[in-house]
Amino acid sequence: MTGYVVYDVFTDQPFGGNQLAVFPDATTLPEEKLQKIASEFNFSEVTFVYPAQNPAHTAKVRIFTPTMEIPFAGHPTIGTAIALHDQGHDGPMTLELGVGPVPCVFEGRSAAFTIAAPLERTAIPDPTLVAAALGLPLDAINTATHAPVQAGVGLTFVLVELASKDHLNACVPSVDHIREGAAKHPAGLDFAIFAYVRQAMQIDARMFAPLDNIPEDPATGSASAALAALLTEVLGQDLTLNILQGEAMGRPSHINARTEHADPVPVTISGQAVRVMQGTLLL
Predict the structure, then answer these.
(1) Alpha carbon distance 268, 114 (integer Å)
(2) What's the confidence (pLDDT) of residue 150?
(3) Is the model's pLDDT at 281 over the cut of 90?
(4) Residue 83: is its pLDDT beyond 90?
(5) Is 45 a catalytic residue?
């Protein structure tokens, strides 16, 4: 039997934010069961915590979606850091993720991590395909700042700016077109789309990854980090972005992203998390 806790991440209220199951001590779990456990929860991610390989670090963390293991994700990093902090790990910590060691600190009731991996642009998808994948007309795509781009800082997303909040609310993803995009532009996630509108430093966003059993994600810290890095490079300045995601799902999530205009761009993602459940896995 192995204990777990469930947190709602990027929120200070239960039943908001993005759900995360954390196994604070996964050492006794069979390797072949990890993906099945993540699929059983059917959250966008589940984390499994192990002793750090480097004794100077706090823990090794493996992250699973319902369909695969991934090297990095934002809300699992924040949620796992807060879960370990709640269990008595005091002060700053370093979590070993698939992208390498990630430092985490605590700012009041929030946790923050910084990632400085280079922004990797893997493709420039056809805007017509991106619009169709979102179920929108082509004129819903705003290319004034950047064209739709598949990019990431450890996990890849199609980053696309929309013309208005009405267009964001009107998104009805087309699985057939997303499947077409995944075939043309294979990546870690299958043509996952992070659509957003921006007014100055306020971002409203939605993320869709239906081919990975994530029809819509209420909070996506890794996509927020990728967008922050992209906008910092394109605009050529330090940024502080306030990102609201999950509103259309009734699970509002609040993500803060701070950057420095450097090469590579360091991105600090911060947010809160609330423990809502705990239990025992009977294996």
Answers:
(1) 4
(2) 98
(3) yes
(4) yes
(5) yes
The answer to whether the beta carbons of residues 76 and 45 sit under 8 Å apart is yes
Contact 59, 32 (CB under 8 A): no
Dihedral over Cα of 63, 68, 74, 79: its sign: negative
pLDDT for the residue numbered 108: 84
Please give the torsion angle defined by the CA atoms of residues 40, 86, 280 and 98, in that order, rounded to the nearest 10 degrees: 40
Angle between helices 175-184 and 127-134 (to 10 degrees): 150
Q: Side chain identity at 258, as an amino acid letter?
A: R
* Distance from C-alpha of 58 to C-alpha of 45, rounded to nearest angstrom: 20
- Ordered alpha helix ranges (H), the chain: 34-41, 74-86, 127-134, 165-169, 175-184, 221-235
Q: What is the pTM of this model?
A: 0.95
Catalytic residue, chosen from 45, 96, 161, 233, is: 45
The backbone torsions φ and ψ at residue 94, rounded to the nearest 5 degrees and listed phi first, read: -125, 120
Distance CA 76, CA 88 (A): 18
Q: What is the pLDDT of residue 144?
A: 97
Q: What is the pLDDT of residues 112-145, one digit of tens each?
A: 999 999 999 999 999 999 999 999 999 999 999 9
Nearest to 188 by CA among 15, 69, 74, 75: 69
CA angle 152, 264, 157 (to 5 degrees): 5
- 146 with 125: CB under 8 angstroms? no
Which one, of 34, 67, 79, lies nearest residue 220 by Cα?
79
Q: What is the mean pLDDT of the chain?
A: 97
Mean per-residue pLDDT, 265-283: 96
Nearest to 162 by CA among 223, 133, 204: 204
